[in-house]
Amino acid sequence: MDKNEMESVIEGILFTMGDSVEPGRIAKALEVDKSEVIECLDSMKTRYEEENRGIRLMKLDDSYQMCTSPDIYEYLIKIAKQPKKYVLTEVLLETLSIIAYKQPVTKSEIEKIRGVSCGHAVNKLVEYNLVTELGRLDAPGRPMLFGTTEDFLRSFGVSSIEELPELNPVQIEEFKQEAEEEAKVALNI
Questions:
Q1: Distance between CA 147 and CA 99 in Å, rounded?
Q2: Is 96 contained in some domain?
Q3: Helix and strand tally (H, E) in the chain?
Q4: Residues with Cβ < 8 Å from 105, sequence gap 6 or more?
């Protein structure tokens, strides 16, 4: 299979699947080495960007997905139904941050950090497909574990959680002190 034919088949696969696809699955379907598929995907990704095409290839963790270029969004919404925008309140952002940095994490672990119940916030984040259930913790009660999704990565413009900004230890300590002071005020101490 020559390079042009391989790109054509990969493009068709990604377009048809809609979701992200691992290079290993594509390699198996094409009966070629995974490294050839990755090389081809990276070449396509670069070419789409350089040619300022209406589509882009996004790398999400160890998968690739065909997406619309953000440059054409304003035209897309004129012709397609406007996508539903979700409002991420402070509570949702705080809960999402904890999940992103601590994943996999249980609701009780999130509640220990936040100091308040988080059931509603976690349920909303699952509904918005920014968070997903990853399984259960092997502990009494078998609590559910939560982590971020590919939609989270796309929404925040990162290709993996390793790209999230590093937390500043001094700032973390300041946040802890602020939270303790707020708790004291709330309890009238």
A1: 6
A2: yes
A3: 9, 5
A4: 98, 99, 145, 146, 147
E strands, 26-178, where? 55-60, 63-68, 105-106, 131-136, 144-148
State which of 14, 46, 78 marks the end of a domain: 78
Euclidean distance between CA atoms 142 and 17, whole angstroms: 34
Tokens, residue 100? 């992103």
SS3 43: helix
Q: Which domain holds residue 68?
A: 3-78
The whole-number pLDDT of residue 105 equals 92
Do 38 and 24 contact (CB within 8 A), yes or no?
no
Q: At 186, list the tokens.
A: 């709330």
In a domain, 85, yes or no: no
The structural domain count of the chain equals 2
Residue 150 maps to a domain: yes
- Asked if pLDDT for residue 186 goes beyond 60, the answer is no
- The answer as to whether 51 is a domain residue is yes
**Dihedral sign (CA 176, 127, 134, 119):** positive
Spatial distance between the Cα atoms of 110 and 106, rounded to a whole number of angstroms: 6
Q: Distances in Å between the alpha carbon of 8 and those of 2, 53, 55, 69?
A: 10, 16, 14, 19
The most confident of the ranges 70-84, 138-152, 163-177 is: 138-152
